[in-house]
Amino acid sequence: MKKFLIFLVLVAAGYFAYDYFFAEKIYYEINASYNKQRESVSIEGPAINPRDFAHYEGRIKNISDKTLNNVVITYMIDAQSSDVTIGKLEPGEIKEFKTKVVMLRHMDPSHYLKEVTFDPE
Hints:
Layout: H1 2-22, E1 28-38, E2 52-62, E3 68-77, E4 80-89, E5 94-98, E6 102-103, E7 111-120
Antiparallel strand pairs: 1-2, 2-5, 2-6, 3-4, 3-7
């Protein structure tokens, strides 16, 4: 019985150690949309093809109780980096962002969130 209680205490201690020290913490919540625009061309210039551009815009919310500094949100659009930098994000604060515009080389390019980096206080 004593060995079983020691085993239970070790399992509980391992769980709490994992939860507080090793588990990945969520600091932010992002709601963004992919926006694509097409440049118009003149009928008088039929040899000129319209170009496509894309970017992301949305909101980021700090859901932690720490201040986040130097937040960099990086999206990959058509294998090109499209990013935005936010200086400071207080706890519970919501900020709107728009990434830099990227010229597309393909009609339907892949696009995804690559990474979000920040310095927590």
